[in-house]
Amino acid sequence: MDCLIYECSILLGMAIDNTTAVTYSSANNSYLTFCKLHNLPINPTPKTLSYYIIFQSSHINLKSVTSYLTGICSNLEPFFPEICSNLAATLVKHTLKGALHHRQPTKCKAPLTTVQLQSIFAMLHQSQDHDNMLFLSMLNMGFPGLLHLGERAISNKPDLQDFHKIILHNLLSWVGNDYEFLLPTQKTDTMFEGNHVRISQIIGTPNPQPVMGCYLYSCDQLFPLHPQLWLCNDGSSPTRSWFLHCLYQYCPSEIAGQSIHAGGATALTEAEAPADLIHRAGC
């Protein structure tokens, strides 16, 4: 029985991704702090949850409030089994709806355009610097592949870096004028199987295959024994802040990590790609 309890604890700990667990812990702490500040019992009644939504929506983005509620429910359900039904209460739902209606307009980053992508390519495609080739390859993979920044770069925080999420060099292969690879499991991959991603050229954009070919040649010369696909000149894996630092050297401030995903979806739409294909690729 002790062995079963031990194994159960391990499996329960692996059920939630590390990055999600950190967010859930932050949500739990914010709720407990809110209750302490306002002298409220921590019992998550519909009224208390409604007050929490009102309080938090004036401090953080409402989308984050919704995520926080999910985290609070996950952490407090063992102690307050009724919390899930309380979250579905009319008072809570109407408070969220009212907050959405009352909030300030959402400020979104602009999508990366094909003109901007071509401009970056023109400046870097002849560079012999390994880091420039790395950045250009990551950019030209993310744009047509509709990949999020976290799927190409590792977390800035060492304790959240997970080798199981790193794309491996030996799992990339050429397919005609395209290339494909296995995208490792992410927190949205409930079956933990990963996804096969095929990168093809979008009309009006640089061909991603020769860009990747130049990077791989440089990588093989510098790091012939490293298993990771993405490696900086110093042998480290590129972080999200590293990629954004490179991006901001060529793009205005209204462009960010998610702009590449949005720009790729826009380019596919302009190229009259089927809507279901764009939806599947961007999930």
Question: What does this molecule look like?
Answer:
The chain has 283 residues and is mainly alpha-helical. It has two domains: 101 residues, DNA polymerase, domain 1 (Orthogonal Bundle); 169 residues, Intergrase catalytic core (hpI Integrase, Chain A, Orthogonal Bundle), CATH 1.10.443.10. Helix content is 53%, strand content 5%. The chain has a three-stranded antiparallel β-sheet. Strand 1 and strand 2 form a beta hairpin. The longest helix is centred in the N-terminal third of the chain and has 20 residues. It is globular. The relative contact order is 0.12.
Attribute tags:
283 residues, 2 domains, mainly alpha, three-stranded antiparallel sheet, 12 helices, globular, DNA polymerase, domain 1, hpI Integrase, Chain A
